[in-house]
Amino acid sequence: MTTANPAPLIFSPYDYDVHEDPYPFYSRLRAEAPVYHNAELDFWALSKYDDVREAFRAPDVFSSAMGVSLDPAAYGPHAYKTMSFLAMDDPRHARLRRLVSKGFTSRRVDALREGIEKISRQYWDECLERARDGEAIDFVDDYAGKLPMDVISDLMGVPEADRTELRRLADQVMHREEGKQDLPKESMVAALDLIAYYQDMVAERRKERTEDLTSALIDAEIDGEKLDEDEILSFLFLMVVAGNETTTKLLANALYWGHEYPQQSQLVLDDPAMVPQWVEETLRFDTSSQMVLRTTTTETTIRGVKIPADQKVLLLIGSGNRDEEIFDDGDVYDLHRDTSASLSFGQGPHFCLGAHLARLEGRVALDMISTSITGYEILPGAERVHSSNVRGFAHLPMRLELSN
Ligand code: HEM
């Protein structure tokens, strides 16, 4: 008996087949090449849960200082991204993170609940109205693409009248042209406009403080040290880059997988107490931030494979989250599973500062959705984004089912 030769294992985060469905690639990487080297694109990739977790937790070997995305555009021309503490190592990173955390507290995020409900209600009511008129909605355009940026604006203290314009700028900042890695000019222009807006807002708050994050960042102080102007601006900008698209994708991914696994979404429709698990299992099963980059500071050996110093290494979060050694039947979407080991918000010193906010937003939004409809159907025309690390939908047309 002859067995057919399997196709050679080639993994690239720029491959459209990977964007469509990365999980068969991850599965082969874990089995055949857990410490994978792509010589052509000059990067390594770790796909086993333990290796990803350990690399996150060893910043002295796996540094963030050369950027956290393989995409050169993500840190090349964007001064403000380069300066953000996401792409720094300790002690500089730790100092800024501590100062920022003085303002960005769990208490402040918890206090946002009402604001999140209000913003969510506004956009979701419009969706329900459309459904009553027998119309379909685009879940991304009409809801999930609007909520997270407005919530970030609310947190920062951006007046309601300016939020639509800031959303437009934020969308433009994240916009990529199909198949191109370089940032389009419009994206850089929008980034500068966004920064200019924040600059004015900070100047206003310096004159008169209010009850918002921006004022808290101005006043944050540890041992007489404060954030300077650029540090405040780079953090405000980082929140848009790190917290907007990721949360949008989380919401649409939850609806998508709930539709693919109707028994699972039925659990939530029957019992809203399952909503937090809907959020957590979606994050594990198909997280919006699929991978981050590190650069080796020294030679290191993993599973007998030597990685030299100064190498780019991708930590495949999306793969670690499906590793069968940690998650039984990891390729199955199951709201009853224990997700506590999930890597979706990272690990170690750069653990997501917005995890609490993302979870709160996910819960408020999915609770409002699941308690106001009896079901939903995803219509043809769903479109995935093509991105080297963000996973989710650009468009998700659907029909909502309402009780009479
Ligand atoms: C860091 C994921 C939402 C702010 C991270 C990291 C991951 C992540 C994986 C670690 C990056 C690294 O180690 O290089 C996510 C996901 C989200 C989400 C999946 C939503 C589903 C948010 C939100 C905010 C936010 C809503 C704030 C508005 C940040 C910040 C960091 C970060 C500031 C940098 C922390 C540091 O470098 O110390 N996020 N995030 N994220 N995230 Fe999130």
From TrEMBL:
Superkingdom as given in the UniProt entry: Bacteria
One Pfam family recorded for the sequence: p450
Signal peptide: none
Alphabetized Gene3D superfamilies for the sequence: Cytochrome P450
Keyword GTP-binding listed: no
Keyword Oxidoreductase in annotation: yes
Classification via PROSITE patterns: CYTOCHROME_P450
Matching CDD domains: CYP130-like (cd11078)
Keyword terms, alphabetized: Heme, Iron, Metal-binding, Monooxygenase, Oxidoreductase
Family under the similarity heading: Belongs to the cytochrome P450 family.
Protein name according to UniProt: Cytochrome P450
Organism field: Dietzia aerolata
